[in-house]
Amino acid sequence: MKIAIASGKGGTGKTTVAVNLALSLQNAQLMDCDVEEPNCNLFLKREMEPITEVTSIIPEILEENCTYCKKCSEFCRFNAIATLPNKIMTFPALCHSCGGCMMVCPEGAIQECEIVTGIIRKSTTKDQNGPELYEGLLDIGQTMASPVIGEVKKYIDPTRTTIIDAPPGTACPVLTTLEDVDYCILVTEPTPFGLHDLKLAVEVARILKIPHGILINRSGSGDDSVEKYCADEGIEVLMKIPQDTRIARLYSEGIPFVEEMEEWKEKFMQLHNSIKDRYGKREEA
Hints:
single chain; alpha/beta; Rossmann fold; Alpha-Beta Plaits; 2 domains; 11 strands; elongated; 4Fe-4S ferredoxin-type domain-containing protein; P-loop_NTPase; oxidoreductase activity; 4Fe4S_Fe_S_CS; CobQ/CobB/MinD/ParA_Nub-bd_dom
C-alpha cells in the first residue's frame, strides 16, 4: 500500500510524520520525493549510495540551419525558446522536454541534447533496521522536479508498505507524487495559515480522487479552526500530535520521536492499520 504524506505548505511537520510512521512499521519503504530539499535522512542518518542519474532532453539549436522563423518559440508555451531577428536563445530550466519545438521546426535546426537534472540514492544494505530509504535530489539550478520524482517512484515495491514524503504545496511536483497513491495523510497545524493551505491541499486530493484524512501537528498551539473545517467538510482527523517540548527537543536534535517515546510507535501502527483496513483493498483489486 502506498501512503503519501503531504501538506499545503512547508513547515507543518510533514517529514516528521513520514519518518516516524515509516519507523513504526515492519518492512516498509520510505520514498523522499521532496527532491528540492530531501531531508528524511537528516533523521534516519543512513549511509546512502547513488543508484541512477535522472536526465532530461532539451533542444540544442543548430544556428547554421536556423532561419529565425519563430515557429519553435511560438509553439513553446513554457517560453523556453526566444527568437530574435538574428539570434535564437534557449532557457533549459524552463523546458518541459516535450519535443514540440523539434517537430515544428521546418529547417531541421533543432536537435535533442540530454542533460543530467538529478540523482536517485538509496540506503545501503548495511542498514538492516528500519525502512528502506530512497531519495531524489534535484541538481542545483534545475527546476523540473517531476522527472526526478517519477524516477524515485519507480523503485516502489508493490509488495511492501510504502510511505511517500511529498513536496510541500500544491504544484506539479505534488501532483506527480500523489499520482497512483492509495491514501494521502494531509499534515497541518491549527492556525489560520495552516487552515488556508490545508484547504488547497484538500482540493487537490479531491480532484485526484484520493482518499485522505488530516493529521494535526502541534495540536493545542493554535485555535480550533482546522477541526471545525474538518467537521464541516466531513474529513476525518486521523491523529493529533500535541505541542510537546520533548518532541520539539528531539526534532531539534534530529531524532525521530518514536525512538524515545515508544507509545507513539504504537499509535502510528494503529494509524497505519486503520488506513490499511479501510483503503488497502484498492491494491488487491
